[in-house]
């Protein structure tokens, strides 16, 4: 079952410096399945926050359809919004002059529900910030504020969570801890849609990922499949040869070559792993000695760069 369906979502903003509208999100479609962590990954200005804000009803989109569980966001707005809770970038869904307990009770109250102090403490305990339950939020570290924001989200007890840049600005330890917490939240049966440009976060916890760039989704895929496709292709091969091989290598499609004396460093992308054996045969037939073959490390950075051509985002 899909808990969120986004179809042809379009959002344009007026610009101060020009009469033309800026297309922040350009007819994107994707869905989030029940029980999964779905990541919207993209550089600055890609349209991630605009997408999250459209889904949680914080801004009015121009075209398209958003469905949350069984409810169309435009036709059944309040029912649709009851199905989700959201953590906005920079823990903006908190009152910083209230304590974590007060925030939890206040925001649960707004939803017309009640939560006891002990239930709230249990959530803070789960997120390992119980000892900060009665301290004012603005005195807490960024990581603790982010956990408090997540606590408020969990206290709403919806099945679907939206998290905008959940690890932004966290130090290494908090980042690792937060990733583990999100996995624990998923294990509780929740579905999570998160936006991020943190590739390590995607690599570690996402089930599926949509890479978004300049308002468009450039790929939407199962994370494991994406990683497999890429891991099968990249090799670094070191070869020793007394002959000049450049032209021959070019003929078989190997163009990333550096050479120092008689050692060639080659970067090769194969479409299928059998191509590796063909290349090995090629070197044998040219009396070249293969010094080493290394499978290139696959990480999300490589995948991301390949789909966005290394685009680092919009500069506006
Ligand atoms: N209120 C607004 N008015 C005008 N333009 C906006 C507004 N909000 C966002 N934009 C523009 O829309 C585009 C998409 O912005 P958005 O915040 O959705 O991207 P993002 O992927 O979340 O980026 P970041 O990672 O930097 O937060 C950007 O070019 C941004 O400048």
UniProtKB/TrEMBL annotation:
Transmembrane segments: none
PROSITE patterns the record matches: ABC_TRANSPORTER_2 (PS50893)
ABC transporter domain segment(s): 4-239
GO terms for MF: ATP binding; ATP hydrolysis activity
SUPFAM superfamilies, alphabetized: P-loop containing nucleoside triphosphate hydrolases
InterPro entries cross-referenced by the UniProt entry: AAA+_ATPase (IPR003593), ABC_transporter-like_ATP-bd (IPR003439), ABC_transporter_ATP-binding (IPR050763), P-loop_NTPase (IPR027417)
UniProt keyword terms in alphabetical order: ATP-binding, Nucleotide-binding, Transport
PANTHER family (UniProt xref): ABC TRANSPORTER ATP-BINDING PROTEIN (PTHR42711), ABC TRANSPORTER ATP-BINDING PROTEIN NATA (PTHR42711:SF5)
Family from the record: Belongs to the ABC transporter superfamily.
Name listed for the protein in its UniProt record: ABC transporter
Species of the source: Petrotoga olearia DSM 13574
